[in-house]
Amino acid sequence: MTDFVSAEWVSSRGDDLRVVDVRDAWEYDGLGHLPGAVNVPFDSFRADEHGAESDAGEGMLPAEDEWARLLSEAGISPESEIVAYDDHHGVFAARFLVTAELFGHDPDRLHLLDGDFSSWQLERETSSETPDVTPTDYAVQRPASTPLVGPDTVAEAANDSDTVLVDTREDEEYDAGHIPGAVLLDWRDLVDDETRGLLAREEALSVLESAGVAPEKRVVLYCNTARRISHTYVVLRHLGFERVDFYEGSLTEWEAQGRPLETN
């Protein structure tokens, strides 16, 4: 399953690991990056709300052929072990990893750096050199099942005592309008401001429990455009939650279909 890994773990893996920096190219080139990291900017794998997958109810996913091209050019194969990072507490990097999982990359080979570029550079070396990579012929092979759910499933979730529907946006956004029955869990509440990574395990579980998110329940996640739920999804899977569903269309699709919202 997709999980968090430490800077020490990344440093120890050497050439066995494909490190992916999802920051903008100017940051990658101008500010430096992790040694050996390739650059796959967030905007390059992010369709807008009218992207190729939107008619399938899959929101902001890029087209399969575009995703395959990006990974091929980055020297990534379906067998590659990947760690991704950004400079925003991991939320953009998590989106890269979730996209990879949804397009069939083995989740056991997908990792999120615990911390981000800012935390890495405080104690570890960075590089300004772009690594030479050998292009691959990456092919998307969608898995037989994924955590993706559609709006009808989401609408039913609020009435299921075994399920908790989770809005991962900020308080103000939630108060302005949320899917009926959803609880609020700002994705940033699971981030340690000092380390810029994940809270300690017991602290993270306490935050989740306070929001009504328990390991024994099925969890359905949404936000606006599926970026913030990507981080929460990786957190929950890392913590051992087994039933985590992912509403890719999120509020972009929900509102476009004229479905109801609750306000506080």
TrEMBL record:
The keyword ATP-binding does not apply. It comes from the Archaea. Transmembrane segments: none annotated. The keyword Transferase applies. Pfam families: Rhodanese. Residues 13-129, 159-263 form the Rhodanese domain. One of its GO terms (molecular function) is thiosulfate-cyanide sulfurtransferase activity. Keywords: Repeat, Transferase. SMART domains: RHOD (SM00450). Residues 123-148 are annotated as: Disordered. PANTHER family: THIOSULFATE SULFURTRANSFERASE. This is Sulfurtransferase. It comes from Haloarcula taiwanensis.
